[in-house]
Amino acid sequence: MIVGLCSQTRYRLLFCVLTLVAILALIQQRSNLRSAIGSDESQGPHGVLQTTSKDPYRSSPTSLPVPSNGALTYLLQTLSTTSTYFIDYPLPASDFGKMGKRLQVLRDWIEASQGLTHQMTPEQATTLHNQIDGTALALFPFLHNPTKSSASSLSHIRKSFKPGSKGIVIPTGQNTFRYACHLISNLRDVLGSKLPIEIVYAGNSDLPSSHRDFISGLGSDIATVDVLQVFNNTPLDLQHGGWAIKTFAALGSQYEQVLVLDADAILLQTPETILDRHKGYRSTGALLFHDRLLWQGAFKERHKWWEEQLEHHTPSKALVKSRVYNEGYAEECDSGLVVLDKSRLPVLLGLLHACWQNTKEVRDAWTYVMGYGDKESWWFGLELSGAQYTFEDHYGGMLGSMNADNNKVCSFTIAHFDEQDKLLWYNGSLLKNKLTNATEFDVPTHYMLEGVWEKGATKQDMSCMKEGKLKETSEEEREIVRKSIEKAKDSDVRIEQFTTLGG
Prior knowledge:
Distance between the termini: 63 Å
Structural class: alpha+beta
Number of helices: 19
């Protein structure tokens, strides 16, 4: 297959470089696997190192030859040539697929630099490092924040992640402040989560210092982060970007493993459960949740565009199983909860692609035109960059109450499930309908999955699901919601007092 691709003029350089880099990058890595992941190493026939991994989430035994100095020199020269090409010929905002291919090349360069460090001279290592950072900065100018006194680059961002750290990231501003306070109470006071929390905002006008002080005082280990101080905001305009802040909040977080939550999300299980027990997440390092199956066949232009961007792409396991992509439904992802392990390079680079999709030029021309907000940018970025990712098994379910005929479950929320089909979280806040009544809370009694959606005509109209698997919420689940509502009401009192005092 590679030989065939290399014979095609359009892809000769790209795929031959990918092949060379991938082979060389793995050489040294395999010799270090024993200390890195606990492997058994033995010398195989013909003097080739054989490595057998004990980690069930790693690949099977691999044998690779040792490179010559000439091959290393050629590698560095080829990387320099390709890096110059990427810098001199930037991509237009429409080339999502080509951006994915460039990220795959960048991934192989980084793996090569990590695997061949001990075989390079200090000068060679510095040159390669600078080429990688220079190329990444050319692809993603937002990585360099001119207001920072210290250097900012892809390597700087990676070094900013605390090794082994896990945390929750909640982007919020004044408009969603109340819901963010409710969510923190749900996490801290009801579920008892000990994970640190970052509240991410876009400048003082988005979340004034008085609000930051208030929300930081709602529990232990809650920090606030101004995303405008992390990235170069000129190509982003995040203070006016709405949903766009979410991908950058994930990238700029100090935590290696991040759970990015919309302010109006409510969890019914601890976030620690997802990080520690979800097999799909542990396997791929990226967990996404499906949206509802709606409007089949209504967005042909969107699907045509997806297919064009994926034209020269081998689909992932997740895409092969996608009912949205393969059966013509409208929206794939509910991005109210996204879980990423940024210590995994493919996931990190997929996140970079998603961030690029949410830059002002790209989102205004394509991302938010072809999709609804940031929703599709998460899976599309991972997919096009060649990263594996996990979607929940079911498309969005319904959590609410039975209708008068007892054959439908109706509400204003979307329910999501764990790998045992147990309720995990839902969106839309603790309110019955946050758009029509700011004080009416709701304790759901039933939920349904794998049914047929009957979408309300507007966001003010209730939606229902029928003909699916109907279940009652458990007493434990209802109690979690009841306690979360009690804490939310307490929080509302404090917010009212806070605002009365001029907060």
